[in-house]
Amino acid sequence: MTLLNYFKELYHINDELEQFFDSIIEVKEYAKGDVIFEPDTYLKYIYFIESGFTRIYYYKNKREITHYFFGPNSFGTGIESVFYKKPSLFGFQALAPSKVCLIPFAAIEELSNTDITVNKIIQKVLLDSLINFSNRFYKTQFETAHERYNALIEENPELFQNASLGHIASYLGISQQTLSVIRGIK
Predict the structure, then answer these.
(1) How high does pLDDT run on average in the chain?
(2) 54 pairs with which residues across the strands?
(3) Rounded Cα–Cα distance for residues 141 and 9 (Å)
(4) Is-contact 172 69, C-beta < 8 A?
(5) What is the DSSP letter of 56?
(6) pLDDT score, position 131
(7) How does 99-122 read in b/e, with b if 16+ C-beta sit within 10 Å?
(8) Torsion over CA of 17, 133, 32 and 177, rounded to 10 degrees?
(9) For residue 54, what pLDDT is reported?
């Protein structure tokens, strides 16, 4: 689904607003494994995944840790970087061939001061991110690794076609060996 079609399903997008988005949005295609942005970079965009599969990751003790997976029709960015102009803690990588819309945040932030629809769009992106990360935090704190694995597969059935076992294990906070044991339990 294109970004504009996604917005139109949620909001009334008039011709003027559609032209605005058409003029500022850049669409890029990434191959499997391409890094969209590295940790420690300053971000100017909010990213909308039109198609494909991506992940947000970070480094801990020189190891790459997967923080979150994003499939089609989802938004990703380094919120602290876009909103507070700090280097992003996270990197963003395509795990499958992906078509991604780059939305320059400065342009939509400026328009949000006078356009309620754009303000609502920004609000939705932020609330969706907050809810997703709140749910992830809850699962990490209160569910077993086996429960987290089952929930992840239920929520993302295409995950194993796109992410490596190492990415999945790091997302779950377990070793690949533990993941193999969990996968063997039916």
Answers:
(1) 92
(2) 70, 94
(3) 35
(4) no
(5) E
(6) 92
(7) bbbbbebebbeebbeebeebeebb
(8) -170
(9) 96
Segments of the chain scoring below 50 in pLDDT: none
CA distance 107 to 99: 21
Take residue 118 and report the two structure tokens written for it. Answer: 């754009």
Which helix (DSSP H) or strand (DSSP E) does residue 28 occupy?
Answer: strand 26-30
Cα 145 to Cα 56, 135, 168, 173, 183, distances in angstroms: 20, 15, 11, 8, 11
In the 3-class helix/strand/coil scheme, how is 108-122 assigned residue by residue?
HHHHHCCCHHHHHHH
The predicted model scores a pTM of 0.90
Q: How far is CA 6 from CA 50, 73, 110, in A?
A: 9, 7, 21
For residues 91 and 37, is the Cβ–Cβ distance under 8 A?
yes
For residues 118 and 112, the answer to whether their CB atoms sit within 8 Å is yes
Helix or strand (DSSP H, E) at 29: strand 26-30
User: Tokens standing for 53?
Assistant: 């599969």
